[in-house]
Specification:
This protein has helices spanning 11-26, 54-60, 93-108, 137-147; strands spanning 3-9, 43-49, 71-80, 84-89, 126-129, 150-161, 166-170. Helix 1 runs antiparallel to helix 4. Strands 1, 2, 3, 4, 5, 6 and 7 form a seven-stranded antiparallel β-sheet that branches. Helices cover 29% and strands 30% of the residues.
Length: 171
């Protein structure tokens, strides 16, 4: 398992993504709704690591507004190798600058982050499913396109590690 620094979306966007999760489940695609005993919340991860220490992260991000009220405009659906399906927000200068700030503060404090989440490598996304059967990928993508575009505002942030039962809110 991994730990992540997650950005949470406003109520309307969260509701629309949850409805999409339900539509995917109805098509036979396991969504994040049914993974990890329904502890997932629609989010965009800013940083991922094998483990994150809440105290170390909080100290590294002191005086940083992690949950900056960023506007996100989800305009596309995509997939990563391994059958991971996601919605992608347009990578604005504001979003990329915020990501770099958080990344630099964490790595400056000695936090080891996963390569794919480093500036220049990061693909901002909201994961919908991690196990889309190949035979259902076209149907799943079509379902995603039905909800796009989706506008959202970041309203919260937390450090999470579901394997260790950690959900530590960040300002």
């Amino acid at each position: 398992m991994v730990a992540a620094l997650e950005l949470y979306l406003d109520t309307v966007a969260t509701r629309r993504i949850r409805v999409l999760w339900d539509a995917l489940e109805a098509e036979g695609v396991q969504s994040l709704r049914s993974l990890l005993e329904q502890r997932h919340r629609p989010h965009v991860s800013l940083a991922v690591a094998p483990r994150l220490d809440p105290e170390q992260v909080a100290a590294a991000l002191a005086r940083t507004v992690v949950a900056a009220p960023l506007r996100l405009s989800f305009q596309h659906a995509g997939q990563f190798v391994g059958r991971v399906l996601w919605l992608g927000p347009t990578p604005t200068t504001e979003l990329l600058t915020h990501h770099r700030l958080v990344h630099d503060r964490l790595t400056g404090a000695g936090v080891e982050l996963v390569e794919h989440y480093r500036p220049g490598h990061w693909v901002p996304h909201c994961t919908l499913s991690m196990r889309v059967p190949n035979t259902l990928m076209a149907i799943a993508v079509r379902r995603c396109l039905e909800v796009l575009p989706l506008e959202a505002t970041v309203v919260g942030a937390a450090l999470t590690d579901h394997a260790r039962g950690i959900s530590h809110p960040l300002a």
